[in-house]
Amino acid sequence: MRAAFLDTTTALLDEDPRTALVLADISASQLAPAAHRHPDRVLNVGIREQLMVGVAGGLALTGLRPIVHSYATFLVDRAYEQIKLDLDHQGVGAVLVSIGASFDGSAEGRTHQSPGDVALFDSLGDGWTVRVPGHPDEVAPLLRNATATDDPVYLRLSEQRNAQAYPDADRLRVLRQGGTNAPLVVAVGPMLDPTLAATEGMDVTVAYTHTPRPLDTAGLRALAGTEVVLVEPYLAGTSSAIVSRAMADVPHRLLALGVGQTDLRRYGDPADHVRWHGLDASGLRRSISAFLRSARS
Amino acid sequence: MTTALTTETGSRLPGLLRRLTGDEKHAPSAHSTIDVLQVLYDRVLRITPETAGDPERNRFLLSKGHGPAAYYAVLAAHGFIPDAWLDDLAGPESRLGHHPDRLLVPGVEIGSGSLGHGLGLAVGTALGLRAQGLLTPRVYVLLGDAELDEGSNHEAIAYAGATGLENLTAVVVDNSSATHGWSGGIAGRFTVNGWTADTVDGRDHTGLYAALTGHRPRRPHLVVARVESKG
Fold this sequence. Notes:
Strand order of the largest sheet of chain A: 2-1-3-4-6-5
Radius of gyration of chain A: 19 Å
Order of helices and strands of chain B: HHHEHHEHEHEHE
Largest sheet of chain B: 5 strands, parallel
CATH topology of the domain at 24-68 and 111-226 in chain B: Rossmann fold
Distance between the termini of chain A: 43 Å
Keywords (chain B): Thiamine pyrophosphate, Transferase
InterPro entries (chain B): THDP-binding, Transketolase_N
Cofactor (chain B): thiamine diphosphate
Structural class of chain B: alpha/beta
Enzyme class (chain B): transferase
Pfam families (chain B): Transketolase_N
Helix content of chain A: 25-40%
Oligomer: heterodimer
Protein backbone atom coordinates (compact mmCIF):
# COMPACT_ATOMS: atom_id res chain seq x y z
CA MET A 1 0.00 0.00 0.00
CA ARG A 2 2.87 2.31 0.74
CA ALA A 3 4.30 1.76 -2.73
CA ALA A 4 0.91 2.49 -4.28
CA PHE A 5 0.73 5.70 -2.27
CA LEU A 6 4.22 6.79 -3.34
CA ASP A 7 3.54 6.07 -7.04
CA THR A 8 0.14 7.75 -7.05
CA THR A 9 1.35 10.80 -5.16
CA THR A 10 4.27 11.22 -7.55
CA ALA A 11 1.85 11.07 -10.49
CA LEU A 12 -0.62 13.47 -8.88
CA LEU A 13 2.09 16.06 -8.27
CA ASP A 14 2.94 15.91 -11.99
CA GLU A 15 -0.67 16.08 -13.10
CA ASP A 16 -2.31 18.54 -10.76
CA PRO A 17 -0.61 21.87 -9.92
CA ARG A 18 -3.00 22.30 -7.01
CA THR A 19 -1.53 19.36 -5.10
CA ALA A 20 1.28 19.73 -2.59
CA LEU A 21 3.03 17.20 -0.37
CA VAL A 22 4.27 17.83 3.17
CA LEU A 23 6.69 15.37 4.78
CA ALA A 24 8.56 15.09 8.05
CA ASP A 25 11.48 13.05 6.67
CA ILE A 26 9.46 9.81 6.46
CA SER A 27 9.40 8.56 2.82
CA ALA A 28 11.43 11.61 1.72
CA SER A 29 14.00 9.54 -0.16
CA GLN A 30 11.34 7.66 -2.14
CA LEU A 31 9.74 10.97 -3.06
CA ALA A 32 12.99 12.72 -3.95
CA PRO A 33 12.35 12.61 -7.73
CA ALA A 34 9.00 14.34 -7.20
CA ALA A 35 10.67 16.88 -4.92
CA HIS A 36 13.28 17.55 -7.60
CA ARG A 37 10.60 18.27 -10.21
CA HIS A 38 8.34 20.28 -7.88
CA PRO A 39 10.54 21.90 -5.24
CA ASP A 40 7.86 24.44 -4.28
CA ARG A 41 5.15 21.81 -3.79
CA VAL A 42 7.08 18.97 -2.15
CA LEU A 43 8.01 20.25 1.29
CA ASN A 44 10.05 18.19 3.72
CA VAL A 45 10.06 20.11 7.02
CA GLY A 46 12.40 17.69 8.77
CA ILE A 47 11.38 15.74 11.86
CA ARG A 48 8.73 18.30 12.84
CA GLU A 49 5.26 16.78 12.80
CA GLN A 50 3.46 19.72 14.43
CA LEU A 51 4.90 22.01 11.78
CA MET A 52 4.06 19.47 9.06
CA VAL A 53 0.35 19.73 9.82
CA GLY A 54 0.51 23.49 10.47
CA VAL A 55 2.17 23.98 7.08
CA ALA A 56 -0.58 21.91 5.49
CA GLY A 57 -3.15 24.21 7.06
CA GLY A 58 -1.36 27.25 5.67
CA LEU A 59 -1.06 25.70 2.20
CA ALA A 60 -4.78 24.91 2.22
CA LEU A 61 -5.57 28.49 3.26
CA THR A 62 -3.91 29.66 0.02
CA GLY A 63 -5.99 27.24 -2.05
CA LEU A 64 -3.58 24.33 -2.51
CA ARG A 65 -4.51 20.72 -1.77
CA PRO A 66 -1.93 19.32 0.68
CA ILE A 67 -1.15 15.64 1.11
CA VAL A 68 0.48 15.02 4.50
CA HIS A 69 2.30 11.80 5.25
CA SER A 70 4.02 10.02 8.13
CA TYR A 71 3.64 7.13 10.55
CA ALA A 72 0.18 7.21 12.10
CA THR A 73 1.50 7.74 15.59
CA PHE A 74 3.38 10.90 14.56
CA LEU A 75 0.90 12.20 12.00
CA VAL A 76 -2.21 11.73 14.12
CA ASP A 77 -1.33 11.17 17.77
CA ARG A 78 1.49 13.67 18.05
CA ALA A 79 -0.04 16.36 15.87
CA TYR A 80 -3.62 15.91 17.06
CA GLU A 81 -4.08 19.52 18.16
CA GLN A 82 -2.70 20.75 14.84
CA ILE A 83 -5.24 18.57 13.03
CA LYS A 84 -7.99 19.95 15.25
CA LEU A 85 -6.98 23.62 15.04
CA ASP A 86 -4.78 24.16 11.97
CA LEU A 87 -7.14 22.22 9.68
CA ASP A 88 -10.57 21.71 11.26
CA HIS A 89 -10.93 24.98 13.12
CA GLN A 90 -9.64 26.97 10.15
CA GLY A 91 -12.30 25.36 7.99
CA VAL A 92 -9.80 23.84 5.57
CA GLY A 93 -9.00 20.26 4.63
CA ALA A 94 -6.04 18.10 3.73
CA VAL A 95 -5.36 14.49 2.80
CA LEU A 96 -3.57 12.84 5.70
CA VAL A 97 -1.95 9.56 4.68
CA SER A 98 -0.52 7.33 7.39
CA ILE A 99 1.50 4.17 7.37
CA GLY A 100 2.24 1.83 10.26
CA ALA A 101 -1.37 1.20 11.20
CA SER A 102 -2.12 -0.37 14.60
CA PHE A 103 0.60 -2.97 15.16
CA ASP A 104 2.36 -2.93 11.76
CA GLY A 105 5.32 -1.63 13.74
CA SER A 106 5.06 -4.34 16.37
CA ALA A 107 8.81 -4.91 16.52
CA GLU A 108 9.33 -1.19 17.22
CA GLY A 109 7.07 -1.27 20.25
CA ARG A 110 4.33 1.02 21.53
CA THR A 111 6.06 4.20 20.39
CA HIS A 112 5.29 3.21 16.80
CA GLN A 113 1.75 1.96 17.30
CA SER A 114 -1.41 3.99 16.91
CA PRO A 115 -4.51 1.81 17.24
CA GLY A 116 -6.50 4.85 18.44
CA ASP A 117 -6.11 7.00 15.32
CA VAL A 118 -9.61 6.55 13.93
CA ALA A 119 -11.11 7.21 17.37
CA LEU A 120 -9.19 10.50 17.43
CA PHE A 121 -10.80 11.56 14.16
CA ASP A 122 -14.19 10.70 15.66
CA SER A 123 -13.44 13.18 18.43
CA LEU A 124 -13.28 15.93 15.79
CA GLY A 125 -16.91 15.60 14.78
CA ASP A 126 -18.36 14.20 11.59
CA GLY A 127 -16.42 16.15 8.96
CA TRP A 128 -13.68 13.65 8.24
CA THR A 129 -13.78 10.93 5.62
CA VAL A 130 -11.73 7.98 6.87
CA ARG A 131 -10.49 5.44 4.31
CA VAL A 132 -9.01 2.14 5.41
CA PRO A 133 -8.07 0.24 2.26
CA GLY A 134 -7.82 -3.50 2.49
CA HIS A 135 -5.70 -3.99 -0.63
CA PRO A 136 -3.00 -1.97 -2.43
CA ASP A 137 -5.20 -1.64 -5.52
CA GLU A 138 -7.72 0.30 -3.46
CA VAL A 139 -5.16 2.98 -2.59
CA ALA A 140 -4.79 4.85 -5.90
CA PRO A 141 -8.50 5.44 -6.56
CA LEU A 142 -9.07 6.52 -2.96
CA LEU A 143 -6.13 8.93 -3.05
CA ARG A 144 -7.18 10.38 -6.39
CA ASN A 145 -10.72 10.78 -5.15
CA ALA A 146 -9.44 12.58 -2.05
CA THR A 147 -7.19 15.04 -3.87
CA ALA A 148 -10.03 16.02 -6.23
CA THR A 149 -11.91 17.66 -3.33
CA ASP A 150 -11.11 20.12 -0.55
CA ASP A 151 -12.57 17.90 2.17
CA PRO A 152 -10.67 16.54 5.17
CA VAL A 153 -9.65 12.96 4.42
CA TYR A 154 -7.64 10.42 6.43
CA LEU A 155 -6.18 7.54 4.42
CA ARG A 156 -4.93 4.78 6.71
CA LEU A 157 -2.48 2.43 5.04
CA SER A 158 -1.46 -0.92 6.48
CA GLU A 159 0.81 -3.81 5.70
CA GLN A 160 -2.11 -6.11 6.49
CA ARG A 161 -4.07 -6.86 3.33
CA ASN A 162 -6.77 -8.97 1.77
CA ALA A 163 -6.25 -11.20 -1.28
CA GLN A 164 -8.67 -9.25 -3.44
CA ALA A 165 -9.35 -5.53 -3.98
CA TYR A 166 -12.80 -3.94 -3.88
CA PRO A 167 -12.14 -0.32 -4.88
CA ASP A 168 -15.86 0.49 -5.07
CA ALA A 169 -16.66 -0.53 -1.47
CA ASP A 170 -17.42 3.01 -0.24
CA ARG A 171 -20.63 1.54 1.05
CA LEU A 172 -21.17 -1.83 2.66
CA ARG A 173 -20.63 -4.44 -0.01
CA VAL A 174 -22.04 -7.87 0.67
CA LEU A 175 -19.47 -10.61 0.06
CA ARG A 176 -21.35 -13.43 1.72
CA GLN A 177 -25.12 -13.46 1.91
CA GLY A 178 -26.73 -15.21 4.87
CA GLY A 179 -30.37 -16.22 5.23
CA THR A 180 -33.25 -13.91 6.11
CA ASN A 181 -32.40 -11.88 9.22
CA ALA A 182 -29.02 -13.58 9.49
CA PRO A 183 -26.52 -11.76 11.73
CA LEU A 184 -24.57 -9.05 9.90
CA VAL A 185 -20.78 -9.05 10.17
CA VAL A 186 -19.13 -5.82 9.01
CA ALA A 187 -15.43 -6.12 8.13
CA VAL A 188 -13.39 -2.94 7.67
CA GLY A 189 -10.29 -2.82 5.45
CA PRO A 190 -7.75 -5.59 5.99
CA MET A 191 -10.06 -7.44 8.38
CA LEU A 192 -12.07 -8.85 5.47
CA ASP A 193 -10.08 -12.01 4.75
CA PRO A 194 -9.79 -13.17 8.37
CA THR A 195 -13.50 -12.40 8.82
CA LEU A 196 -14.48 -14.45 5.77
CA ALA A 197 -12.31 -17.32 7.00
CA ALA A 198 -13.71 -17.06 10.52
CA THR A 199 -17.34 -17.21 9.40
CA GLU A 200 -16.92 -20.02 6.90
CA GLY A 201 -20.01 -22.25 7.15
CA MET A 202 -21.85 -19.89 9.54
CA ASP A 203 -25.23 -18.45 8.58
CA VAL A 204 -24.17 -14.82 8.60
CA THR A 205 -24.04 -11.98 6.09
CA VAL A 206 -20.54 -10.55 5.68
CA ALA A 207 -20.26 -7.01 4.33
CA TYR A 208 -17.06 -5.14 3.55
CA THR A 209 -16.13 -1.47 3.41
CA HIS A 210 -12.90 0.49 3.13
CA THR A 211 -14.69 3.65 4.27
CA PRO A 212 -15.69 3.57 7.93
CA ARG A 213 -16.33 7.36 7.98
CA PRO A 214 -18.90 8.17 7.03
CA LEU A 215 -20.07 4.67 7.81
CA ASP A 216 -22.76 3.43 5.44
CA THR A 217 -25.53 3.48 8.04
CA ALA A 218 -28.29 3.18 5.43
CA GLY A 219 -26.69 -0.05 4.20
CA LEU A 220 -26.22 -1.16 7.77
CA ARG A 221 -29.92 -0.75 8.53
CA ALA A 222 -30.90 -2.47 5.31
CA LEU A 223 -28.64 -5.47 5.90
CA ALA A 224 -28.85 -5.91 9.67
CA GLY A 225 -31.29 -8.13 11.47
CA THR A 226 -31.04 -8.02 15.24
CA GLU A 227 -27.36 -8.97 15.55
CA VAL A 228 -24.41 -6.94 14.32
CA VAL A 229 -20.70 -7.76 14.58
CA LEU A 230 -18.07 -5.13 13.82
CA VAL A 231 -14.57 -6.30 12.89
CA GLU A 232 -12.23 -3.31 12.74
CA PRO A 233 -8.42 -3.13 12.46
CA TYR A 234 -8.15 -0.28 15.03
CA LEU A 235 -9.41 0.03 18.60
CA ALA A 236 -12.31 -2.30 19.38
CA GLY A 237 -15.55 -0.38 19.66
CA THR A 238 -14.45 2.62 17.61
CA SER A 239 -17.62 2.44 15.50
CA SER A 240 -19.97 1.22 18.22
CA ALA A 241 -21.52 4.62 18.87
CA ILE A 242 -22.31 5.09 15.20
CA VAL A 243 -23.95 1.68 14.91
CA SER A 244 -25.92 2.26 18.09
CA ARG A 245 -27.19 5.62 16.85
CA ALA A 246 -28.07 4.22 13.43
CA MET A 247 -30.08 1.39 15.00
CA ALA A 248 -31.47 3.24 18.00
CA ASP A 249 -35.05 2.35 17.03
CA VAL A 250 -34.27 -1.29 16.28
CA PRO A 251 -33.83 -3.86 19.07
CA HIS A 252 -30.36 -5.27 18.43
CA ARG A 253 -27.21 -6.67 19.98
CA LEU A 254 -23.75 -5.49 18.97
CA LEU A 255 -20.34 -7.16 19.25
CA ALA A 256 -17.42 -4.86 18.48
CA LEU A 257 -14.11 -6.55 17.74
CA GLY A 258 -10.79 -4.87 17.08
CA VAL A 259 -7.51 -4.04 18.75
CA GLY A 260 -7.67 -4.23 22.54
CA GLN A 261 -7.28 -1.15 24.71
CA THR A 262 -4.30 -2.43 26.66
CA ASP A 263 -0.68 -1.77 25.75
CA LEU A 264 0.60 -5.34 25.64
CA ARG A 265 4.24 -4.26 26.05
CA ARG A 266 5.23 -7.06 23.69
CA TYR A 267 7.19 -7.05 20.44
CA GLY A 268 6.95 -9.93 17.96
CA ASP A 269 5.46 -9.91 14.47
CA PRO A 270 2.18 -8.28 13.44
CA ALA A 271 0.88 -11.86 13.14
CA ASP A 272 1.56 -12.35 16.85
CA HIS A 273 -0.40 -9.21 17.69
CA VAL A 274 -3.24 -10.30 15.41
CA ARG A 275 -3.42 -13.49 17.45
CA TRP A 276 -3.04 -11.78 20.84
CA HIS A 277 -5.88 -9.39 20.03
CA GLY A 278 -8.06 -12.26 18.82
CA LEU A 279 -8.16 -10.92 15.26
CA ASP A 280 -6.97 -14.04 13.42
CA ALA A 281 -9.58 -16.33 11.88
CA SER A 282 -9.76 -18.69 14.84
CA GLY A 283 -9.91 -15.88 17.39
CA LEU A 284 -12.65 -14.11 15.47
CA ARG A 285 -14.57 -17.37 15.08
CA ARG A 286 -14.40 -17.96 18.82
CA SER A 287 -15.68 -14.47 19.63
CA ILE A 288 -18.42 -14.42 17.00
CA SER A 289 -19.65 -17.94 17.82
CA ALA A 290 -19.83 -17.17 21.54
CA PHE A 291 -21.75 -13.96 20.82
CA LEU A 292 -24.27 -15.65 18.57
CA ARG A 293 -24.66 -18.64 20.90
CA SER A 294 -25.34 -16.37 23.84
CA ALA A 295 -28.23 -14.84 21.92
CA ARG A 296 -29.95 -18.17 21.50
CA SER A 297 -29.48 -19.59 24.96
CA MET B 1 10.09 59.17 23.64
CA THR B 2 7.67 57.62 21.18
CA THR B 3 6.22 59.15 18.09
CA ALA B 4 2.82 58.55 16.55
CA LEU B 5 3.00 59.40 12.89
CA THR B 6 0.06 57.12 12.18
CA THR B 7 -3.07 59.17 12.36
CA GLU B 8 -5.56 57.76 9.88
CA THR B 9 -7.41 55.69 12.42
CA GLY B 10 -5.67 56.71 15.62
CA SER B 11 -8.32 59.15 16.72
CA ARG B 12 -11.09 56.56 16.44
CA LEU B 13 -9.36 53.75 18.30
CA PRO B 14 -9.83 54.89 21.92
CA GLY B 15 -13.58 55.14 21.43
CA LEU B 16 -13.75 51.77 19.69
CA LEU B 17 -11.70 50.14 22.43
CA ARG B 18 -13.98 51.57 25.11
CA ARG B 19 -16.91 49.86 23.42
CA LEU B 20 -15.10 46.55 23.89
CA THR B 21 -13.60 46.95 27.32
CA GLY B 22 -15.86 49.45 29.09
CA ASP B 23 -14.21 51.97 31.34
CA GLU B 24 -12.34 49.54 33.55
CA LYS B 25 -8.58 49.34 33.41
CA HIS B 26 -7.34 48.28 30.01
CA ALA B 27 -6.36 44.65 29.76
CA PRO B 28 -2.60 44.65 29.18
CA SER B 29 -2.63 41.78 26.73
CA ALA B 30 -5.21 43.58 24.60
CA HIS B 31 -3.33 46.82 24.43
CA SER B 32 0.23 45.64 24.09
CA THR B 33 -0.46 45.05 20.42
CA ILE B 34 -2.35 48.19 19.50
CA ASP B 35 0.52 50.24 18.10
CA VAL B 36 1.86 47.38 16.00
CA LEU B 37 -1.61 46.72 14.64
CA GLN B 38 -2.18 50.39 13.92
CA VAL B 39 1.05 50.73 11.95
CA LEU B 40 0.43 47.47 10.09
CA TYR B 41 -3.12 48.28 9.05
CA ASP B 42 -2.57 52.01 8.40
CA ARG B 43 0.71 51.87 6.56
CA VAL B 44 2.13 48.42 5.84
CA LEU B 45 -0.45 45.83 4.86
CA ARG B 46 -2.14 45.96 1.51
CA ILE B 47 -5.54 44.76 2.69
CA THR B 48 -8.95 46.39 2.52
CA PRO B 49 -12.42 44.97 3.09
CA GLU B 50 -12.80 44.98 -0.71
CA THR B 51 -9.61 42.95 -1.28
CA ALA B 52 -9.99 40.61 1.70
CA GLY B 53 -10.31 37.65 -0.71
CA ASP B 54 -7.71 38.74 -3.26
CA PRO B 55 -4.90 36.18 -3.69
CA GLU B 56 -2.44 39.09 -4.02
CA ARG B 57 -3.33 40.59 -0.63
CA ASN B 58 -0.88 40.69 2.24
CA ARG B 59 -1.76 38.20 4.96
CA PHE B 60 -1.89 39.15 8.61
CA LEU B 61 -2.19 36.22 11.02
CA LEU B 62 -2.83 36.95 14.67
CA SER B 63 -1.27 33.97 16.40
CA LYS B 64 -1.56 35.43 19.89
CA GLY B 65 -5.34 35.31 19.88
CA HIS B 66 -5.59 36.32 23.53
CA GLY B 67 -6.96 39.75 24.33
CA PRO B 68 -7.97 40.62 20.75
CA ALA B 69 -9.69 43.90 21.68
CA ALA B 70 -7.09 45.97 19.85
CA TYR B 71 -7.39 43.71 16.80
CA TYR B 72 -11.17 44.03 16.71
CA ALA B 73 -10.95 47.81 17.17
CA VAL B 74 -8.50 48.12 14.29
CA LEU B 75 -10.66 45.88 12.08
CA ALA B 76 -13.65 48.10 12.85
CA ALA B 77 -11.65 51.29 12.24
CA HIS B 78 -10.73 49.98 8.80
CA GLY B 79 -14.23 48.89 7.90
CA PHE B 80 -13.82 45.10 8.02
CA ILE B 81 -16.52 44.80 10.69
CA PRO B 82 -19.31 47.13 11.84
CA ASP B 83 -18.58 49.19 14.96
CA ALA B 84 -21.74 47.79 16.53
CA TRP B 85 -20.15 44.35 16.75
CA LEU B 86 -17.84 45.70 19.45
CA ASP B 87 -20.67 46.24 21.92
CA ASP B 88 -21.38 42.61 22.75
CA LEU B 89 -17.96 40.95 23.05
CA ALA B 90 -18.41 37.18 23.54
CA GLY B 91 -22.15 37.59 23.99
CA PRO B 92 -24.50 34.82 22.91
CA GLU B 93 -25.17 36.43 19.53
CA SER B 94 -21.70 37.94 19.09
CA ARG B 95 -19.35 37.06 16.26
CA LEU B 96 -16.44 38.37 18.33
CA GLY B 97 -15.13 36.03 21.02
CA HIS B 98 -12.27 36.26 23.48
CA HIS B 99 -10.31 34.59 20.70
CA PRO B 100 -11.03 35.40 17.05
CA ASP B 101 -12.59 32.90 14.62
CA ARG B 102 -11.81 33.32 10.92
CA LEU B 103 -15.12 31.81 9.89
CA LEU B 104 -17.03 34.40 11.92
CA VAL B 105 -15.05 37.63 11.45
CA PRO B 106 -14.39 39.19 8.02
CA GLY B 107 -10.74 40.01 7.47
CA VAL B 108 -9.49 37.52 10.06
CA GLU B 109 -7.10 35.09 8.34
CA ILE B 110 -6.88 32.44 11.10
CA GLY B 111 -8.86 31.38 14.12
CA SER B 112 -6.46 31.53 17.07
CA GLY B 113 -6.27 31.38 20.83
CA SER B 114 -4.40 28.16 21.52
CA LEU B 115 -0.81 29.41 21.57
CA GLY B 116 1.76 28.10 19.15
CA HIS B 117 -0.28 27.63 15.98
CA GLY B 118 0.02 30.87 14.02
CA LEU B 119 3.66 30.65 13.04
CA GLY B 120 3.27 27.17 11.53
CA LEU B 121 0.20 28.32 9.62
CA ALA B 122 2.11 31.40 8.48
CA VAL B 123 4.98 29.26 7.20
CA GLY B 124 2.48 27.15 5.24
CA THR B 125 0.77 30.24 3.90
CA ALA B 126 4.09 31.72 2.78
CA LEU B 127 4.99 28.42 1.08
CA GLY B 128 1.58 28.20 -0.57
CA LEU B 129 1.87 31.71 -2.01
CA ARG B 130 5.35 30.98 -3.33
CA ALA B 131 4.25 27.69 -4.90
CA GLN B 132 1.53 29.54 -6.82
CA GLY B 133 3.90 32.21 -8.10
CA LEU B 134 2.43 34.89 -5.83
CA LEU B 135 5.75 36.55 -5.05
CA THR B 136 4.50 40.02 -4.04
CA PRO B 137 2.34 39.42 -0.97
CA ARG B 138 4.03 39.14 2.41
CA VAL B 139 2.80 37.10 5.34
CA TYR B 140 2.88 38.84 8.73
CA VAL B 141 2.25 36.84 11.89
CA LEU B 142 1.98 38.37 15.35
CA LEU B 143 3.04 36.41 18.44
CA GLY B 144 3.54 37.18 22.12
CA ASP B 145 6.81 36.68 23.95
CA ALA B 146 5.27 34.08 26.27
CA GLU B 147 3.83 32.29 23.27
CA LEU B 148 7.38 31.54 22.18
CA ASP B 149 7.51 29.06 25.07
CA GLU B 150 5.44 26.70 22.92
CA GLY B 151 7.75 24.22 21.22
CA SER B 152 5.78 24.25 17.99
CA ASN B 153 7.12 27.76 17.33
CA HIS B 154 10.66 26.51 17.42
CA GLU B 155 9.92 23.94 14.74
CA ALA B 156 8.71 26.79 12.56
CA ILE B 157 11.57 29.18 13.42
CA ALA B 158 14.20 26.59 12.54
CA TYR B 159 12.55 25.52 9.30
CA ALA B 160 11.76 29.01 8.01
CA GLY B 161 15.31 30.11 8.69
CA ALA B 162 16.93 27.04 7.15
CA THR B 163 14.91 27.41 3.96
CA GLY B 164 15.26 31.19 3.69
CA LEU B 165 11.52 31.79 3.59
CA GLU B 166 11.76 35.41 2.51
CA ASN B 167 8.09 36.38 2.26
CA LEU B 168 7.51 35.83 5.99
CA THR B 169 7.70 38.42 8.78
CA ALA B 170 7.09 37.44 12.40
CA VAL B 171 6.27 40.15 14.91
CA VAL B 172 6.82 39.33 18.58
CA VAL B 173 5.23 41.77 20.97
CA ASP B 174 7.45 41.53 24.05
CA ASN B 175 5.82 42.61 27.28
CA SER B 176 8.07 40.36 29.40
CA SER B 177 5.28 37.94 30.17
CA ALA B 178 7.18 34.67 29.62
CA THR B 179 7.45 32.81 32.94
CA HIS B 180 11.16 32.13 32.67
CA GLY B 181 11.99 35.06 30.44
CA TRP B 182 14.22 35.19 27.38
CA SER B 183 17.60 36.27 28.68
CA GLY B 184 19.67 37.98 26.03
CA GLY B 185 16.54 39.01 24.16
CA ILE B 186 14.24 37.26 21.76
CA ALA B 187 15.92 38.19 18.49
CA GLY B 188 18.83 35.81 19.07
CA ARG B 189 16.50 32.79 19.03
CA PHE B 190 15.59 33.70 15.49
CA THR B 191 18.86 35.04 14.11
CA VAL B 192 20.72 31.91 15.16
CA ASN B 193 18.41 30.11 12.73
CA GLY B 194 19.08 32.48 9.85
CA TRP B 195 16.43 35.15 10.32
CA THR B 196 17.07 38.88 10.13
CA ALA B 197 15.76 40.78 13.14
CA ASP B 198 14.99 44.29 14.33
CA THR B 199 14.17 45.07 17.93
CA VAL B 200 12.27 48.33 18.41
CA ASP B 201 10.16 50.29 20.87
CA GLY B 202 6.67 48.86 20.36
CA ARG B 203 5.05 52.24 20.94
CA ASP B 204 7.21 54.13 18.43
CA HIS B 205 5.37 54.21 15.14
CA THR B 206 8.33 55.47 13.13
CA GLY B 207 10.55 52.71 14.45
CA LEU B 208 7.84 50.10 14.00
CA TYR B 209 7.25 51.13 10.40
CA ALA B 210 10.94 50.89 9.57
CA ALA B 211 11.22 47.48 11.22
CA LEU B 212 8.03 46.09 9.71
CA THR B 213 9.26 47.02 6.23
CA GLY B 214 12.89 46.18 6.95
CA HIS B 215 12.98 42.64 5.57
CA ARG B 216 15.93 41.59 3.42
CA PRO B 217 16.12 39.15 0.48
CA ARG B 218 16.30 35.39 1.02
CA ARG B 219 15.73 35.54 4.79
CA PRO B 220 12.62 35.51 6.97
CA HIS B 221 12.37 38.63 9.10
CA LEU B 222 11.59 39.20 12.76
CA VAL B 223 10.37 42.36 14.46
CA VAL B 224 10.56 42.40 18.25
CA ALA B 225 8.27 45.14 19.51
CA ARG B 226 9.14 45.86 23.14
CA VAL B 227 6.39 47.33 25.26
CA GLU B 228 5.99 47.99 28.98
CA SER B 229 6.10 44.90 31.19
CA LYS B 230 2.81 43.11 31.74
CA GLY B 231 3.74 43.12 35.45
